[in-house]
Amino acid sequence: MAVSAAYPVESIDNAARILLMLVDRPSLRVADVSAELGVARSTAHRMLTTLQARDLLRQDAGTKGYGPGPALARLGIAVMGAVSLRDEARLLLEKLVEDTSETAHLLVLEGTETVFIEGAESQQVIRAGLRTGQRGPAHASAAGKALLAELPREELRRRYPGARLRGGTEHAVSTRRALEAELEKVRETGYATNMEESERDLCAVAATVRNRQGVACGALSVSGPARRVDARLDLLSATVTAAATELGTRLG
User: Cα separation of 237 and 152, whole Å?
Assistant: First the structure.
């Protein structure tokens, strides 16, 4: 039976109102939400942290304000034109293949996994294959590490509550501490690598795609045989980073 809009579920209504507040302002504070909804600050804080736990909001470590989270960005993309995003990405993926001669993919982060959502395959005889629709452990993936590096430390530890990590080859990081150190390198360089960490003899380079608001929407990667990728790491990292930046500007 349909529920009349005259009888909204209060908690859902409040969550919707919080998210709609982002239409008029880039960041929300606990005091803003408290005043807007007419609730105590402690209640407003619980609402914000609940939305943060679902990746709908993300807290800035410096300002403590809450802005759009990666899940909200993905939802917006899905609602307002996922086809458009994939079309834009496909053109850049094809250009990445042309520029690098390696297979290129667009991936997103879901929990502790990456999901391949679009790709273009290299024409090299020995090459990485298309993996559209497949999933893999984020900590053993170049794109996964690029996207994990976007998360605050608290959110990273929520996703990886244990000290040990599972998945990937013997080359993949196996502890949360090692992953945190790896992600710090990603933030410094602006790109992430996978050096035979997901599969033997496969290497990849990836960079985060951020829209004009600075929200991470996904990552572009190029991958191929280990020897070939390792020998051209500087070129590949520069090329994929430039492509990720270009795609981000097209997302508005």
Answer: 24
